[in-house]
Structure formats: C-alpha cells, structure tokens
Amino acid sequence: MEKISSRKNRIICHMRAVASDPAYRSEAGQFICDGEKTLREAIEYGAEIVQVLWREGAHTEELPAEIEQYCAPADLVEYASPLKSGPGPVFTVKIPQQSRDERIMRAIVIETLQDPGNVGTIIRSANAFDIDAVIMVGACADLYNPKTVRASMGAIFRQRVLKMSIKELDEFTRRQCLPLFGAALSDKAADIRNAELHRSAVAIGSEGRGLSRELLNICGGELIIPMNSHSESLNAAIAASVIMWEMSR
Which of 114, 128, 129, 148 is most buried, taking the most CB atoms under 10 A from its CB? Predict the structure, then answer.
C-alpha cells in the first residue's frame, strides 16, 4: 500500500477536487465518501470504488485488488475528507449510469430543491419506502455533493435517481403509463389521504416557491398534505417523506 506524506500528492489533490468542484467531479466521473460504515455499504451494494485513503495505522478492510489503496497520517486524511473531522477512510466511487428503461411503479419528483441535505434526506426516505425512482428536475442540488451523499446515509448506493427536464418527465411518465400528481397549496388540490397513489409519480417543489406552473401543467391532478390552520408549510424533505409513506401504503 502506497504511503502519502504530502498535501500536494496527486491523490490528495484529486480527492479534494472531487469533493469541492462540481465540474471536476463530473469530468472525473467520480464522487467522494467518508467512513468505514459507508465503505462497507458501498461494497455491499456493488458501487464501483476507485481509490481508498486509509488513516495510517488504522484497521483496513480486505478489498478487491483493482481498487487503489493508499495510507496517510491522520491530518492528511482529514485534509482530503469532505467531512473535515471524519475518521476515514476517504474513498472515491465511480458515478453510475442510471437506466430510464426499467419499469417504475412509484416515483417522487423533486423540482429545484437546492439544499443538498434535503435532497439526500429524500433519497434516504425513498429507499426506506421502496420508491422506485427519485427524479430530479430543474436546478436541484448536485446529487454527488458530499453533503447530499452524507445526508442519504448510504441510500445513494441503493436508490435509482434520474435527472430530466420537464419535457422529458412528461414523455417519461406517459411512456411508463404513470399518473403524475403535483403537491400544491391550492383550492383544487385533493387530500393526499384520499388519492390512489400505489402506482404514481408525485412532484414536490421547494418550500419557498413550490412547483413551477410549467410542471403543474403536465400533472393530472394536485394533492395537498392536510395540516392544522396554524401551519403554513412543511420542510421539503419532510413533505416528500409523508408523500412517499402514503405512496407505499
């Protein structure tokens, strides 16, 4: 195992760029993770691990020979880590190609959700409630931002996530014969508890703006989560989780 002793080492520089630079991350086709538990989950669910940086003297896992492995002093591992205070190991994973051809029964659509913590939490909830796909539309947070990855709590290795435009979403749901609903605060929105959602796609927008008119125009109906009169709205990740729980019942 090669030992790294400098911040200027190419592996350290590469990992930091993958963590902090979306353009570099996309070009490299990799994202970064931290921690032994996350590493074990990545291995268990077939993620293609590229490089692993271990803390010098730490217990190391038995990994396939094709994975590049390195070790470094704790301060260098922390320097490379997106968590900064993470114990390591730090590792890079190849960004997977997601197919749009597989049959989908349930999907949650998120439009222009820019908080990576919310996006990661929605991915985590989608996996918990057996939602077939999370569909990202518009200017959402980067799927492979370290904060998104961390908030998903490993679900990013298990959950199908697709990115598409509103036009592509319309074509996709039609091709899948999947009814599309939009979550909206409107007088014509139906109580989500009374909707047939076992086979459907439901779209949710940001807490401040909601869904765009363009996306609402392709929805076959609007839904609302009933709340008491003292509450204005729910956090986007919480609202999406409530919707997905209803879809899974």
Answer: 148
3-state secondary structure of 135: strand
Strands 49-55 and 90-94: antiparallel
Average of per-residue pLDDT across 94-109: 94
d(CA 237, CA 222): 18
* Residue 37 burial (10 A CB sphere; 0-12, 13-18, 19+): exposed
Contact 87, 54 (CB under 8 A): no
pLDDT of residue 41: 96
Cα dist. 162→134, 156, 158, 234 in Å? 6, 12, 13, 24
DSSP 91-113: EEEEPPPPPS-S--SEEEEEES-
pLDDT at 84 over 80: no
Which of 21, 13, 32 has the alpha carbon at shortest distance from 146? 32
Show Cβ contacts of residue 129 under 8 Å, excluding neighbours closer than 6 positions.
241, 244, 245, 247, 248
Compute CA distances 16 → 21, 63, 81, 84, whole Å: 8, 23, 7, 11
Contact 104, 178 (CB under 8 A): yes
Q: Which domains does the chain have, with CATH numbers?
A: 2-94 (3.30.1330.30), 106-248 (3.40.1280.10)
- Cβ contacts of residue 198 below 8 Å, gap of 6+? 105, 106, 247, 249
**pLDDT value at residue 85:** 65
Please provide the average confidence, as pLDDT, over all residues in the chain. Answer: 94
Q: Give the pLDDT of residue 207.
A: 81
Tokens of 121: 């939490």
CA dist., res. 53 & res. 10, Å (int): 12
Please give the structure tokens belonging to residue 22.
């979306």
